From TrEMBL:
Origin: domain of life: Bacteria
One of the record's GO molecular function terms: structural constituent of ribosome
Record gene name: rpmC
Name this polypeptide is given: Large ribosomal subunit protein uL29
Keywords of the record: Ribonucleoprotein, Ribosomal protein
Gene3D superfamilies: 1.10.287.310
Annotated Pfam families: Ribosomal_L29 (PF00831)
One of the GO BP terms on file: translation
Phylogenetic classification of the source organism: Bacteria, Bacillati, Bacillota, Clostridia, Peptostreptococcales
GO terms under cellular component: cytosolic large ribosomal subunit
Family (UniProt): Belongs to the universal ribosomal protein uL29 family.
The keyword Ribosomal protein belongs to this UniProt entry's keyword annotation: yes
């Protein structure tokens, strides 16, 4: 997911996405540990998505503090 798309979402939607990505990461790590994960690059993509969501949330928090 692109940061531009994330900026169009509301804060509540971003928090929901963050929870979704975190549960997906947990599932992927569990699959990796049990040897069921075929494509390990997915983990890196999900980690980056989590970072993007956190970045957008931090930007919003800074903008609220300035206003």
């Amino acid at each position: 997911m692109k940061a531009k798309e994330l900026r169009n979402l509301s804060t509540e939607e971003l928090l929901a996405k963050l929870d979704e990505f975190k549960s997906e990461l947990f599932s992927l790590r569990f699959q990796l540990a049990t040897g069921q994960l075929q494509n390990t690059a997915i983990i890196k993509t999900v980690k980056r998505d989590i970072a993007k969501v956190k970045t957008v949330l931090a930007e919003r928090k800074l903008n609220e503090a300035r206003a």
